[in-house]
């Protein structure tokens, strides 16, 4: 699936951006978690432990491979996100209730089965490949493309909404698909159609957790994907890989929402701190499994897997670091907009890399459709 998407969607690489001129002043730098080099090795090499990858690097390079967000900030944002997402004033206890245990058992069964969670994710409709194939041509027909899009009500709404949001300053309203196609352009349509293809299906028959949480998780992923794609070129990262990694980061949790509804019969009975911690671990593994089954590149799979923790001396890939940063800042954006956290709190940016302010600005109302 990845090769197919990459071949149809990728365009020319964006030029490297200049470094931002303003950023949130960093607080004291993060402590060096990697162990320093040990004493000289004795005559028998096997007697000395091998240094970690981070320890073997020069200090400047090692900093570029460590997690970009301090553990304290990840924990703070994660706790606030959990409480708001599940509508809990506290962590709801430190023990699993019966419903939470059953949800985790269901996830464990999916992870241990021969069939991965990819079977539970909406696959691309037949219309999407047809549209993306048309967009590969530099001489595509706007009228023909408009007729194809008009056969899918979801695409019609997305195309017109994007056109109106891009050109709202003109005072005119876009009402036809053909006009919207001309205004958005070829590259805009590529990104929009890809996004629509991955968007989860939510209907009136969905349960409580799917109805409430799936739209929130999708908007967070969508914002992060667009921001990551814009940040990627300056970091030497393939923009489309960054886009896909961020778009896929919540797919495991979105799949788990159906299990939550089946177990709880639609009643909000989940959300303890210990449940969220185990749920995050298992749904992350599910996202990694889905990425592997879809034959996404190893860089995307590794980046998703690297979100699993802050091990001492851990080395993160450039894409893994970018994904962690946009995920953290994306959650901050949503929580600030919901009034859960205070905007402008410098403590929330302490120890972040210098481009965090630019990334945070990109996440403000960033949507691809």
UniProtKB/TrEMBL annotation:
PROSITE patterns: HDOD. Residues 121-310 form the HDOD domain. Residues 13-47 are annotated as: Disordered. Residues 26-42 have a biased composition (Pro residues). SUPFAM superfamilies: HD-domain/PDEase-like. This is HDOD domain-containing protein. It comes from Massilia aerilata.
